[in-house]
Amino acid sequence: MRICIVGAGPAGLLLAQHLMGNHNNNNNACYDVHVFDKLPNPLLTDSTDSRSYPIALQARGLNAIREVSPALTEKLVAKGQWMDTVRFDTTGKGGVQTMKRPAASLLMEQGDLKREMVQFLQEQQGQDANTKSSLELHFDCEIQSIFLHNRTLLASCSKTKEQDAFVFDHLVAADGANSILREMFAQQDSKFHFDRKRVPGGYKPLFLERQAVTTTTTPTTGDKEESKSKPKEPAVLDSAIYGWMKGTQNFLSVPLPHKDYSSGVYAFTEDPDPLADCQTPADVLEYFQDKVPSLAQFLSEQEATQLLTRPTSTMCTVRCNRLTAGDNYEAILLGDAAHTFSAALNQGCNSALQDVQVLQKCLMKHNNNWNDALAAYEQERAQDVHAAHELSDYSLPQTKLQRVEFIGRMMLRKLPGLKRVIPPLPMDLIYREDLTYSDILQKCQGWIDKVKTTKSKRAEAAAKEATSIGEDQFTENVGKTKALLLK
Length: 487
Ligand SMILES: Cc1cc2nc3c(=O)[nH]c(=O)nc-3n(C[C@H](O)[C@H](O)[C@H](O)COP(=O)(O)OP(=O)(O)OC[C@H]3O[C@@H](n4cnc5c(N)ncnc54)[C@H](O)[C@@H]3O)c2cc1C
Known about the structure:
Bound molecules: flavin-adenine dinucleotide
Number of strands: 17
Number of helices: 15
CATH topology of the largest domain: FAD/NAD(P)-binding domain
Number of domains: 3
Structural class: alpha/beta
CATH architecture of the largest domain: 3-Layer(bba) Sandwich
CATH class of the largest domain: Alpha Beta
CATH superfamily of the largest domain: FAD/NAD(P)-binding domain
Strand content: 15-25%
Distance between the termini: 76 Å
């Protein structure tokens, strides 16, 4: 059976891993697996060019990987770093608050996660004499068209410099939030719809030095009191997740093992990008020095130069009415192609991996009968995906009062005895591996409803304002037309 997977991200690669090791699961499925990605093979890219943003994997994502391959999980654990401490600087000037997350996450660069998964897949391919399945990885190969009912796709691969046609039995859309396959499903299957909205703002990867490059009197490590007593020590980023906030800008940095820099992200939540006015590296350095001096001390001139030219990525929300496409279950959507998560919850990759875990279970239960397994997958996953959307959209406070309640509840729940009395917030439960997104939604429904009401009232007010502006404009236009006619 030929399975074409479009997208060698965490979701596509984990599914390929499962299909290749499938004979271990007591059935004789024989797969011809093709994985396509428009990007080059991560194992062949120059490591100096392949810095990427850090990603936090929790038990939810790691359990999904473990179920497919315990050995791959071990490999990833060896590559990453467990962290549960977050140091937040909310002033940008060195007033650091240290917080412990409810559970440790495994942190690694997103590029390293993909690299490790590709390498493992290739190593396993050569070693397993029992497998009847075959795997072909097509990198530098962009899918441009699909014909769902003919079960065919057209790939434009740089190796052949031609468009190659591939016939498939089932197609897997794991091509991320900007999925082109999803668009084609909507064109070719009248029962499939989706909604994709751009989220205001954007982000760029940000790479800081691990030790201060400029002297400052505001070292960022340790607590405020500790910093005051040792003002001259050169500041270092130690083993913790660092966050800085300044108005609509957030900065994150994670000093990972085996890296001589600290990898992170610069994000802004409202357009336009406040950095857009900077013309030279000196402007960038001055901007950071002025706005977030405690971060600026780790910013090298070289990084300031690169920040100017590094492209800004945007984020979007994706909601699909179905998780499969085609009258006969020709295709399935996995990961970001099917649903996205707010970046603040660190769940996108975890939930993408969990999609594969659920699909794996359905395939095993239905003896690799894909039509039955995909029908079961859709039924089983739909409720959790709906809950994930609700958590993604309505977990964060929207008003000043909600912000006070949010921080208050988080802090009070840390005090002995109060955990049982104060109802949890989604952030308190999202790390719990024993709870599904539906369970978390149920336990936090009160908070979610409150945020939802605020957001929908705001949307209503904005719509009313837009209508009244429209009416005013209409009255003004009528006035202008009358005046012209009278002339
Ligand atoms: C700044 C940032 C921080 C994040 N932090 C976290 C975190 O801490 N924890 C977490 O769980 N999640 C996090 N996420 C989300 C996470 O990165 C995504 O949810 C995850 O990568 C989704 O995996 P995927 O396999 O579905 O898709 P992707 O990783 O997006 O992979 C899709 C692949 O498809 C390929 N592709 C696209 N179109 C085509 C085409 N036409 N032809 C061929 N190939 C194609 C792409 O090149 C890509 O390799 C973060 C995201 C961002 C942006």
